[in-house]
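EI: anyone free to look at a 142-residue chain?
SC: sure, send it
EI:
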Amino acid sequence: MEINGIAHFFVTVSDFEKARPFYTGLLDFLGLHPMIDTDGYLYYVGGRTAVGVTRCDDAFKEERFQQFRVGLHHVCFRARERADVDAVYEYLLSVDATIVHPPEEGPWMPGYYSVLFEDPDGIRLEVNHVPGKGFFTEPAQG
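SC: here you go
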C-alpha cells in the first residue's frame, strides 16, 4: 500500500471569531475552496487535501497552542513553485500575521525553501517548496 497524501486536518481554535478571518483569507489565498462555513466551523478543500477549523469547547477558551506539547507540532502546505512561498509571505505581511521566519532555505534537503508563521492561537503553519520530486526514499527492506 502507498498512502495518497492527507485527506484533511482540523485545527481547534480558542476564539473562532478572531481565527475565522485569518483562515478564510489564508485558505482563499492558497486556492482552497470553502465547502462549509457556519458558526464555529470552516471546511475548505483544494490541492488534494482539506482543512477544517472548529471552535474549541468553552472549558479550553483560555488556552493557547504549545508547539512541544503532545499533539500537533505544525502543519506545512506544499507550494508548487518557490515564488509561491514568497507570495504567501507578502500576503502574510499584508494581513499583519505573526511571522516566525521569512522565506529561507532550510537544511532538510537541497532546495528546501519555506516561510513559517502562526495563526491567532499561535498554531504554527508553514508553506514550503522543494524542487523536483522532493524527498523520496525507497521503502525499508527486511
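EI: Residues 138-142 have pLDDT under 50 and may be disordered.
SC: 👍
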